[in-house]
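Q: Structure tokens for this one, please.
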Amino acid sequence: MSIRPVHLGLAAARRVALAAQGFADRPPSGRIDVRHFRRVLGRLGLLQLDSVQAVCRSHYLPVYSRLGVYDRAALDQWLWHSGEMFEAWLHEASILPVDREPSLRWLRARARAGGTWAGLAALANERADYVASILDEVVCRGPITAADLADPRPRTGSWWDGRSDGKRAVDWLFRVGDVGSRRVGNFQRTYMAFKEVVPASVRGRPTPTEADAQADLLEEAGRCHGVGTAADLADYHRISLREARPRLEDLVDQGRLVPATVDGWRDDAFLHPDATRPRSMAARALLSPFDPVVWFRPRAERLFNFRYRIEIYVPADKREYGYYVLPFLLGDRLVGRVDLKADRTTGRLLARGTYVEEGVDWDWAAIELSAELDRLAAFLGLTEVSVDLRGNLASALRSFRRG
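A: Here is the predicted structure, written as tokens:
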């Protein structure tokens, strides 16, 4: 018997999605601690890692967007040293609860069979003895950085990313699960034996089949997104759409997802049965480019009518909005965007370009964005906010801040 789809209006779908991501949760009333970090990771499932820190390391921002000002050192201590979390290659480089490790084994098995970057697989196949020696060294000496290897073997020819053979070897070993990784100091990656980051109690659990592991990950994506298309849910853990579709059908048959339709969406959707449907949303946040709300750009455009691209790798003279642009969430809408830079030398948060979307009240956006910029500056330990003239909201924002 076919299940009748649940129908959602677009605004209702936005609220479902934002609630699933934690934006309807009660704000912390006291000191923010590990309990709050756990709550956020329970909502997001993982934090994507990225080395660009025009504002700050990207994994700090989704937690800030949901909790407000907190101690970044306390988050790092929990992420890297509590034993509750581990780093894996999932939605790009990610950190996630260590209990999820069994569901990722199929990914590591595929990587070992060549299903990862061709250059890494070629190194493992063509220079197996060298890679084995690197593994032995990491196990014996770890935690160790790639630069501290006894034989890093810098490449003498041209290579697309300039990495040494040692760095490529440990990257391969990390992707196939032979070594673990932990960040220290200034986000520096160290490597050690896999058992040092995933305890025996987890490593000893049965390995699920590919189908079961993918189904578990897709259900988690449904919970984290609240509602989404097959493409939305598949992207969360980078499962191919071809593989995701039959898993999603099984999840519907099992009652773990509910079929849905959303006004204006061409493709059918899936609603998590535990998703809440708030009548309103009072969120206000600047979002990292790597926040799950916006990291799958087709979803952001479909859900919020917000076309968003990160322009880090676009030549400066061809950028539309700026180098590191954060979408501005207000209520249940993405109402604007800000090109931001933390100038730690001068202690200023630089709003180098401020933009409001068509149809949004400029005064309302300026008032709320001003408050959010002040809050973000406090989070980053900066003492001043500087608003440049670029962008269609700049004049109203500057006028409001002058009083």
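A few notes: Confidence is low (pLDDT under 50) at residues 156-161. The chain has 15 helices and 14 strands.
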